[in-house]
Amino acid sequence: MEVENILGSQQLAPQENDLPEATSTQESDAELKKKKKKKKKPANVAATEVVESIGGIQLNSGKEEEDGEGDEAQADALTETDAAKKKKSKSKSKKKKGLVQTDPPSIPVKDLFPSGEFPEGETQAYKDDNLWRSTSQEKRELERLEKPLYNAVRQASEVHRQVRSYIRKYAKPGVAMVDICETLEDMVRKLIVENGLKAGIAFPTGCSLNWVAAHWTPNSGDKTVLQYDDVMKLDFGTHIEGRIIDCAFTIAFNPVYDPLLEAVREATNTGIREAGIDVRLGDIGAAIQEVMESYEVEIGGKTFQVKSVRGLSGHSIGPYQIHAGKSVPMVKGGEQTKMEEGEFFAIETFGTTGKGYVREDLECSHYTKNFDVGHVPLRLQKAKQLLGTIDKHFSTLAFCKRYLDRIGETKYLMALKNLCDQGVVTALPPLCDVKGSYVAQFEHTIFLRPTCKEVLSRGDDF
């Protein structure tokens, strides 16, 4: 019995000695605390480890798994939060940068400027007696009140700049003229967000070639193709609420025509510089002619003095009225009417190697309803119906036969002639110099603001 008691006490002794080592000594407590800090484990996991070291049995293991799942869920939630933050910051940075125009342009210009503030054109100070305007508080206040008008014409100008920038690359030798016009016009409709008479194309695309100076666009079925030796005038307009931007430039691929283009471009810039409030229109014409006719161009071994084209001129622009009554000549001796504050003008010049006079020739494509026409009794039913179509789609903005075809009009030639005969509509046939000559054109729309002159359609190209 004593032997058994001794053996039993010897077997139990180590177990009793083990318990205090794991739980009650200060050294073990310190180590446990140290482990807690080091591993940063939850309190319940640390307690489980103590129980396991005491009994050698896995107690609370289910709790550990639950906590592990909780940790994973917490990590997933943090990851989702981080992703959301990144997404938010990315969208913010995208918002800051804004949209960028595509190539070819397809995004409406108003979407590129969500603030509603469109780029200002080139501003030029008035000369001499009008210098005080730039610092006048009264004149600045007038401009502030007209902000919606400024934004409208600047939006139309930005559309013009973006369209012509693309069309310069598109218009190459071998491309059909009708494709150039329709590509250009479809792009205008898209970028300006065509909306009936509130926004859209201001007049048909003029793409007159060589000795044809103005008012030519291909009618349906025309097979004319642009050639390397052609001199093409691209004249097109945009409008917002009837506020028209009229701007034109010349494309020539053969460098032999460069002096001709330079002469006309400089003549236009001269007209812009001379323009201003209280300036006489005839004085602008004299300045234009002096610059234009100081240039010569050599073509085919012959030297030609560049001449200003008589019979064509710049003009004032009104709401839904491309020619509003005042003319800006290209030669001296013109009218002595003065420019006035708040007016819009198209300063355009034509230079030619021909005679400097134009005549009507070729098949007509351009038409416009007369601005001041009243009620005219029409007997022809088809003419009445066509007039209703013109009023709805164009009003007093110019149009062409292709535009009538596009909106579904058919067999309208007799009715159109009747409207012209009755004085309701005016036909605008192509204007031509002598065959074999070359005519170039450049044009900008300017606005005589109360404080300064703004060249609305100015761009990096010209």
TrEMBL record:
Compositional bias ranges of the Acidic residues kind: 64-74
Residues where a divalent metal cation 2 binds: 246, 315, 348, 443
Pfam families tied to this protein: Peptidase_M24 (PF00557)
Subcellular location, principal: cytoplasm
Cellular compartments annotated: Cytoplasm
SUPFAM superfamilies (UniProt xref): Creatinase/aminopeptidase, Winged helix' DNA-binding domain
Binding of a divalent metal cation 1, residues: 235, 246, 443
Binding site for substrate: 215, 323
Family the entry assigns: Belongs to the peptidase M24A family. Methionine aminopeptidase eukaryotic type 2 subfamily.
Functional description taken from the UniProt entry: Cotranslationally removes the N-terminal methionine from nascent proteins. The N-terminal methionine is often cleaved when the second residue in the primary sequence is small and uncharged (Met-Ala-, Cys, Gly, Pro, Ser, Thr, or Val).
Name this polypeptide is given: Methionine aminopeptidase 2
Species: Marchantia polymorpha (Common liverwort)
Organism taxonomic ancestry: Eukaryota, Viridiplantae, Streptophyta, Embryophyta, Marchantiophyta
